[in-house]
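Friendly challenge for the regulars: who can give me the structure tokens for this chain first? No prize, just bragging rights.
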Amino acid sequence: MIVAVTGANGHIGANLIRALLKEGRPVRAIVHNNLRALEGLDIELVSGDVNDINSLYRAFIGVDVVYHLAAFISLSKDDWSVVKSVNADGTRNVVEACLKNGVRRLIHFSSIEAMNQEPLNEPVDELSPLVDSRNEPPYARSKAASEREVHQGIEQGLDAVILNPTAVIGPHDFGLSHLGETLLTMARGKLPALVEGGFDWVDVRDVVAGALEAEKSAPVGAKYLLSGRWATVCDLAKITEEILGVPIPRFVCPAWLALTSAPAVTVFNRLTRSRQIYTSVSVRALTNCNHNISHARATRELGYHPRPLYETLRDTFRWFQLTGLLNSKTILIPDE
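First reply, four minutes later:
Bragging rights claimed.
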């Protein structure tokens, strides 16, 4: 039975498709542009766009399971129109196309950003509410809206499961996600400064393993937080130094200074057409996030056990080396 994947050329998509192929399953990748992450894979490529519902109707014909990954990730406060269009309206189209084509199960990828993490001294779990305030960043609001679209589909008879990963890092990051680019810059020893704060980091391969098990065994309407390990940016830098031997930045920028300078840095990056690593949205996320994102339900029901952060970073840097992105003097030898 065919498995369709939207957002197939993204970071999670590249890892998910490889895992599906290892299981011997036929994969139909719904692609919109860049195909680099899918080169050489024995899959069916179908052109599609989540904002073009007719393309989804065609793409889901004969499909048993849809993994919905397509999303616009934004660290800006000014992207509401585009993130709403792709993340919320696009999910509504995916839901409708699944219902029309009789898709057996939809696995929808949301984000921890969709969830209210306050009070910060209490664990976040599947019962925590979705964000519901215009003061939240556009990306967070759009992902919360996407979950509401899935719930409406469930009310119409759709079999769907919702997954909320935390900050995803790991190998096969062909398009260089924001987090991947930050790690690569750090590994090259070119990160000018660290910033106070941290986040819950999860290996993309663990997210994929949780998703595959959710497809097989989760009850209709279930929701799972797929978290990993909370660590500060300084912790990541220290592990990077341990693995690669690169010196880490000695200056740790206070959150208030990073927030104050973020608007000017944003203007500079727009003028130079370069990606901004620290934005006001990302700095606030690093300094105002919950340290306890519970994956207890996923562990209990899916057998979900995220790997150590050291292993994730080592394997990510190894992948950077193998693809020529990182010319490190330290040679990372694969495990036996």
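Residues 2-173+199-230+292-308 form a domain with the Rossmann fold fold (CATH 3.40.50.720). The first strand starts at residue 2 and ends at 6. Your move, everyone else.
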